[in-house]
Amino acid sequence: MDYTILILALPLLSFLVLALAGMKMPHRVAGAIGTLSLGAVAVLSYLTAFSYFTAERTAEGTYPTLTPWNIDWLPFTQQLHIDMGIMLDPISVMMLIVISTVSLMVHIYSFGYMKGEKGFQRYYAFLSLFTFSMLGLVVATNIFQMYVFWELVGVSSYLLIGFYYTKPEAILASKKAFIVTRFADLGFLIGILIYGYYMQTFTFTPSEEQLMKAGMVLPWALGLMFVGGAGKSAMFPLHIWLPDAMEGPTPVSALIHAATMVVAGVYLVARMFPLFIGFAPSVLHWVAYIGAFTAFYAASVACAQSDIKRVLAFSTISQIGFMMVALGVCTSMNPHEGGLGYMAGMFHLFTHAMFKALLFLGAGCIIHAVHSNEMETMGGLHKYMPITHITFLIACLAIAGIPPFSGFFSKDEILTACFQFSPVIGWVMTIIAGMTAFYMFRLYYCIFWGKENKELHAAHVPHESPLNMTFPLMFLAAVTLIAGFIPFGHFVSANGESYDIHLDIQVAATSIVVALIAIGLATWMYAREKQPVAEMLARRYSGLHRAAYKRFYMDEVWMFVTKRIIFRCISTPLAWFDRHVIDQFMNFMAWCTQAFGVTVQPAQSGRIQTYTMWFLGGIILLTLVLLLF
Amino acid sequence: MGITLQEIAFYAVAVCIIVCSVLAVTTGKILRAATYLLFVLFGTGAIYGILGYTFLSAVQLMVYAGGIVVLYVFSILLTQSDKDMKYHIRRGKLVSVLLTTLIGAGLVLFLLVTNGFALNLIPQGDELPVEQIGQALIGTDKYQFVLPFEVVSFLLLACMIGAILIARKEEKKD
Amino acid sequence: MEIEIHVIHYLVISTVMMFCGVYGFFTRKNLLALLISVELMLNATNINFAVFNRYLFPGQLEGHFFSLFGIAIAAAETAVAIAIIINVYRNVKHILTDDITDLKG
Predict the structure, then answer these.
(1) Which of A289, A274, A290, A174 is nearest to A237 (CA)?
(2) Where a domain ends, among B68, B86, B104?
(3) Which structural domain range is residue B52 located in?
(4) Are A311 and A402 in contact (CB under 8 A)?
(5) Where are the transmembrane segments (chain C) (predicted)?
(6) Nearest-10 crossing angle of helices A423-448, A386-400
(7) What residue in C sits closest to A614 (Cα-Cα)?
(8) What residues in C contact B60, CB-CB < 8 Å?
(9) Cβ-Cβ contacts under 8 Å, B107 against chain A
């Protein structure tokens, strides 16, 4: 499997070429370079996956963990060294498929979406950089390599959110994303350092002896690593950057902020899963509670947003919450006894990446058609954009959990895992799944049916997007249709053994009923030209509606915490101390030196006579001293 | 015990040297300063003679009085500086200079007096023969000075070349 | 027959000459006058060499030769100094120490 190095090398090469020489190229060539290299990466990824999963299983019935490439990069001590390499195991191979597929689709889609944009080549260069770093992240052989690529992913996300760098909102959003995730990454780094310090290794699978050494601090290390993951995966209360990140181009949102980068936190937890299960089950359950709360919070906010990309962003947060819950409710490594959530979470990651990318790309087509993100400019678009309409509907049905679409299967597994853990969590998650169905169909109706903004549409007739934009939609829709039937448990499960997915009829029926009720409610409220129920509700509970629209004031809370508490109580005194004590001390030293210099400067007159006089005076003085003492 | 001719000559020369030294540094005209210097140098030559170093005395007269002073006079005329030299000197500076000089001189004289030299006799007319000087200059034994001699001659050569090079008019470059 | 002049007398002469040179060196502004002062100081040291040689070590010649070399070196120094002064005069049109303070950098 030596060719796997190309999976990393090609995007990097394409980034270097585009970044160094891109500005000299015509748009078409630059886009072609990026897309072709990504196409090659996708082919190689599929090849890797095919050969990996068709290979022999080991005696325990698991797929072997392969490391085709590994180099000692920074040796600190005999045992503690940072490596760079490629590791293949079921989840990393699955992530390779997800990333390369979505990235390739986004590359193709961007041909149409970004057509004629200034900085087209820069855009493709950044996309390549992002793809490279994301692939490097998932194939990392050790936690430090993961951290390095983790930060690279953060940088490329920052660059792409701020792609329209002439727009102040975009700059603010990119800064916000970078600072919030960096803040969370501090936790990750501390966690890694604790891990490395006590265990003397950075590998994901430390030996018994090393684990003994870590002992009590391991839960802390894992908890801190989860803080980093929570930052990247937009878990409450570190989610505030993700809705603002929608300022970037829509394909970027589809790739980074829906399908790949934001699930890095989930991937991190999955990667450290055996350690969580073995040494920090309580931390893992906290992951579940945080995930559940985030899922609920984001779903309720999504019900009130008017910007379609914001709705999708909160939907993403909510769905990542689902994945976190799935991982968090696990109690053992055995998928038959409390280890189902691992498989369910990964499965949901896979299907969600596909249909959420589809939703974002569809939203991109709509924005392309009406030149706005706001719902009020839309409505009744189904007659103008049939392909977008159908694919968007498929994605909505998938995320709402209607069979036979892929989302149904993965969500059902998550709910099953939750019910196994505790009925309370199970019901909470079922209700959140219902809310998901409600807000997604609210979105769907507000875009494609409901009240049409005839005035605007008459002035500028919305039109279906060109083929290079609709092809990715159709491809992803096809994947969404069939992905549910993949025997996912056969490839990925908590202990690596083959696991047959079987539906729990009771759970499945409940979730379908809840979803159908929610869809019916959304149809009743939003499908018609007039929406009296929705308006009435919004009026009656105006406080709640307003709070949900304002995201329950989380941004304001953060602003309060940072500006009023941190800045005022900590930073201001520190700044005062720095300015008045440290700086003044330095100034005083400078002043002393200067004063001394000014005092002795006249002695340096350049007149030989004066010098000689000092010289003679000195000699006389010395002689006197020698005489007297 | 009467005063000998040599003693009279010595004291006359001493007075001449002291007076001329003071005048050389206080006179307002530089040409006169050069002239007073000439007298000082003559006086020095005379002292060498009194000490019995007639060869040294002759060299002093030839090189110093004959060569260097002439050089001075020429350069004074060349640089057109034979004018009034009564530049204003700040009082503070004058005081400090006088103080340094007087304290220095006082210190040296004090040291000389308190050192207690008991020597007051030299054989009269015991002239240093030139042959002995010549032998000492070209010998390599102990108390013979061929190396300094050669070094000095080399130095003189270097200086001659250097002086010519420095004082030469720069060629106009086109 | 011997002459009776105490060695102190010679040394007083040279001291006076020396400090006249010092005084001149400090107060003069004309470079040539400065050089004259330097000559006075050199002469004073030469006298000392000769006197000490004659009184302390009459059998040897070190002091004598030091005086001799001193004269030679004084001549060399004067030649170079005057060459420099003339060059300065050519460039600055003055040979006053106040004008030549470039040593200050």
Answers:
(1) A290
(2) B86
(3) 5-86
(4) no
(5) 7-26, 32-53, 65-89
(6) 170
(7) C26
(8) 46, 71
(9) 620, 623-624
**Is B46 within 8 Å of chain C by CB?**
no
Instruction: Please report how the helices A27-54 and A90-113 are oriented relative to each other, as an axis angle in degrees rounded to 10.
Output: 160
Count of structural domains within chain B: 2
Question: Residue B101, Cβ neighbours under 10 Å: how many?
Answer: 24
Tell whether B140 and B73 lie within a shared domain: no
Residue C11 lies in a domain: yes
Average pLDDT, chain A: 86
Residue C2 falls inside a structural domain: no
What is the rounded CA–CA span in Å between residue A544 and residue A532? 18
A179-232, pLDDT tens digit by residue?
888 889 999 999 998 888 888 888 888 877 777 777 788 888 888 888 888 888
**What is the pTM for the complete model shown?**
0.68
- Could you give the 3-state DSSP secondary structure of residue A111? helix
Q: Cβ of A617 and B100 within 8 Å?
A: yes
* Residue among A408, A402, A245 at smallest CA distance from A316: A245
Q: Is the Cβ pair C22, A607 closer than 8 Å?
A: no
What's the angle, vertex CA B135, arms to CA B129 and CA B138, rounded to 5?
Answer: 140
CA distance A1 to A12: 19
Length of chain C: 105
CATH classification at residue B78: 1.20.120.1200
Provide the 3-class DSSP secondary structure of residue A73.
strand
Output the CA torsion A45→A48→A50→A54 (10° steps).
Answer: -160
- Has residue B41 been placed in a domain? yes
Please check the confidence at residue B169 and state whether its pLDDT lies above 80.
no
The answer to whether the CB of A347 falls within 8 A of the CB of A494 is no
Side chain identity, residue A601: Q
